[in-house]
Write a structure and sequence with these properties.
- By secondary structure, the protein is mainly α.
- The protein has five helices and no strands.
- The chain is elongated and about 115 Å long.
Length: about 120
């Protein structure tokens, strides 16, 4: 029973909810198999682990998580770089694509079959 409770606590700490659920169910089965007066402290630990598992998606748990995240951001000491203004980019016109200069090329039209028709 002690091992199942410790596995549940480790899974809850790692936020591995499926493993925590399984470990809690195993611990509950073991606790139900024992008489009520045996392993009272283990039952209390199991109840505490169940409370922690149940609080994973509550608004109170989310508030605590957000508070920890903002405190961690402040602890870094670095300020984010200021964002560049996009107003200048919108005001400037996009550059047209460069025109390829093919130079003075002469095509031999008679070699391609476009020669003069001498019908007269």
């Amino acid at each position: 029973m002690q091992q199942a409770i410790s596995l549940a606590n480790m899974a809850i700490n790692k936020k591995n909810w499926s493993a925590a659920r399984y470990a809690l169910s195993r611990a509950r089965v073991l606790a139900d198999a024992l008489p009520a007066n045996v392993a009272v402290t283990k039952r209390e630990k199991l109840a505490a682990a169940r409370k922690r598992f149940a609080a994973r998606n509550t608004p109170a748990a989310k508030k605590v998580r957000q508070a920890k995240a903002t405190a961690a951001k402040r602890a870094g000491g670095k300020k984010p770089a200021p964002k560049k203004s996009t107003a200048k980019k919108a005001a400037t016109q996009p550059k047209p694509a460069p025109v390829r200069d093919l130079g003075d090329r002469f095509i031999n039209r008679t070699a391609l079959g476009y020669g003069q028709n001498k019908t007269t």
